[in-house]
UniProtKB/TrEMBL annotation, chain A:
This is Rod shape-determining protein MreD. Pfam families: MreD. It comes from Halonatronomonas betaini. The lineage of its organism: Bacteria, Bacillati, Bacillota, Clostridia, Halanaerobiales. The gene is mreD. InterPro entries: Cell_shape_determining_MreD. Its main location: membrane. GO terms for biological process: regulation of cell shape.
Amino acid sequence: MRQKAFYILALFLIIILQTTFFHRLPAASYGPDLILVVVFTAGFLSGSQTGIAIGFLAGFLQGILLGSGFGLYTISRMLIGAAAGLLKGNVYKESLALLCLILFFVTFFHEILIFLLSEQVILRVGFQTVLVNRLLPASFYNMLVGMLLYILMIYLIPVGGFQDEQKN
Amino acid sequence: MDFFNDFRIKIIIIFLLVLISILAVNIFELDFYIFTWLENGIYNIMSPFFNLLDSTGNYLSGIYQSFFQSRELLEENQRLRQELSEQVIINISLNEVARENQRMREMYNLDSAHIDDLDLLGSRVTGQAPSSWEQRIMINKGSNQGVEERFPVISFNGHLVGKIINTGVNSSQIMMVNDPDFSVGARVSRETSRATGVVRGQPGETGQLIMERIDWDADIEEGDLIITSGISDQYPRGLPIGKVVEVFSDNFGLSKSAYIDYNLGNQDLEELLIILEY
């Protein structure tokens, strides 16, 4: 329960910062998408169930801020939360180099999902343009900044909090 | 088979049901009152935090400027005073032209929707929605101040910025002109051409909009100023949108399209004007 409260608090904080502050940072057009990092971290450390729940909340809140409510981001964040949960137990949480790589591909996959599901984008821009101008730089940038948040989160997470709370 | 135990099957079924529901709501554009109520409630709870953070940021920035940038501020103040006195002189002559124009319009019974007739409300930008695919920003004025959905929004120099898409009690969301979902009727503002088309946002950070559905033989060229046409009744006519940077043939030569430089980076937007009535 403490873990879930921690993730929800972290999510609210990141959404407020992402909305009011991060767009002033250099390379703001490429992100960083730290909401995605929180969802990934929740799924990776606490399992798919928590990942899906935090993903749903993150996507729903983001949808509200985009004026679209239950939308594309609710689906994409839930999928990322579920996928991150599958890594739990297979990758050490301290394997930072490997996690860097994973975070890069998670961001890449998420951006592709948004691209494929946005009719106004997919019908009007070529994939190659999006790949070079958007997907690769955004994934790289999110990997760099996202890892800092991940490290911060694993140090701040409540003591003994790496056990999955689900009783299966 | 252990993987598919009862607990996991339940989670997978719930997950799939939620996914299907969300897809159905979006594909069939279903509008449930409870969802709208929930969305508005959460938005109204969160927006004071954005306004508070923005006010704190501005306060700190003000302190920083007063301590470390006083010299620059004094110089800027002096420059602005000089510009103001020049503008006063220009304004006097423009007023003369406007009065003459008004007399002419009355003589010829012309309808006169003019930028001076707009009922405007000033607002501050408090945040940007957390997605770089969509271009949406938030402001600190909402339904309490009379803001409603679809109201057009302009910058302080009169350029079209976007339209209101959602309102909270004391804040609203704006879809900007460079959002891929945005579109507005537009025309060329040149004495010898009134070519019309539809201006839409472009995905990605191109810094350009696209004007489509221009007649194949329309007179449009690089450097032309593009303004709102006012055909749709959602925007007053004559609001500047941007300048043409490239014209090209489209639809196998059946029409033309043009790239428009709108020169409106999000970073520069701090204060905006909402058009309440026109």
